[in-house]
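Lab notebook, design round three. We kept the backbone fixed and only want residue identities now. Task for the bench partner: fill in a sequence for the structure below.
Input structure tokens:
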């Protein structure tokens, strides 16, 4: 068959296409949902528009500048993505993969256990769990802890009249990085009157980054979850555990 001969004749082309596709997909997975993705997307758009403009008007200096820029592109990518590359390389080994998943599962159980206890006692809580994007401004607005994310510590932080109970606890890489953090409040107007400041702050953060924000209502004990601008409530502990696991372990929602 002609198509078989074509494939056999140009198999090197197909191999190169496959390798390049895997490389680009790997880069996409590496930066998807991070601030670097926004930077690279904006940079690529600006360069593309200017390059087309330079080609159309035959601007020699700009054309030469863009050709030089293309040769320096790999170095630029390494500089912009150094944190993501370091994290990606750190997670290549199977040992790190299984260890990370075990730690993540233990952290989820600690969060759910603390939330369940706080809900039963009608103690308000606001917990942000970092997914792929960090939010340094939120972390720096609170008190840095860098402590293990245990059920007892999470619950203690929200007890009334304790120094750090008012604000959000930020959990990142299976650690409580900071407490008493200040979150941006959503500007939405069409929200139910029953949603207080905690829920509005949770929605505000979820609109800025892909953190998972868990809220316990002080008045009702209702458990809510905010993710990417969406509010889910009421949730029971099992539903909360499932939603956090689905998001953090990137499983498809059922």
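Proposed sequence:
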């Amino acid at each position: 068959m002609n198509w078989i001969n074509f494939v056999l004749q140009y198999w090197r082309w197909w191999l190169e296409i496959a390798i390049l596709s895997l490389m680009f997909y790997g880069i996409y997975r590496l930066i998807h949902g991070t601030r670097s993705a926004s930077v690279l997307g904006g940079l690529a758009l600006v360069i593309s528009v200017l390059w087309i403009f330079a080609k159309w008007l035959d601007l020699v200096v700009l054309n030469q500048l863009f050709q030089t820029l293309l040769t320096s592109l790999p170095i630029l990518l390494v500089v912009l993505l150094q944190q993501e590359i370091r994290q990606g390389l750190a997670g290549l080994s199977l040992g790190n993969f299984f260890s990370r998943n075990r730690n993540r599962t233990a952290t989820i159980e600690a969060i759910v256990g603390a939330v369940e206890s706080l809900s039963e006692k009608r103690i308000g809580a606001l917990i942000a769990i970092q997914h792929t994007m960090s939010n340094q401004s939120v972390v720096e607005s609170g008190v840095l802890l860098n402590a293990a994310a245990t059920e007892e510590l999470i619950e203690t932080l929200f007890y009334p009249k304790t120094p750090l109970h008012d604000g959000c606890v930020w959990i990142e890489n299976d650690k409580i990085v900071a407490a008493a953090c200040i979150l941006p409040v959503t500007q939405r107007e069409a929200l139910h009157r029953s949603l207080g400041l905690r829920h509005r702050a949770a929605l505000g953060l979820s609109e800025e980054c892909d953190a998972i924000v868990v809220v316990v209502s002080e008045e009702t004990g209702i458990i809510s979850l905010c993710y990417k601008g969406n509010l889910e409530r009421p949730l029971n502990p099992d539903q909360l555990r499932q939603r956090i696991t689905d998001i953090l372990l990137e499983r498809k929602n059922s």
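Keep this in mind before ordering anything: The chain has eleven helices and seven strands.
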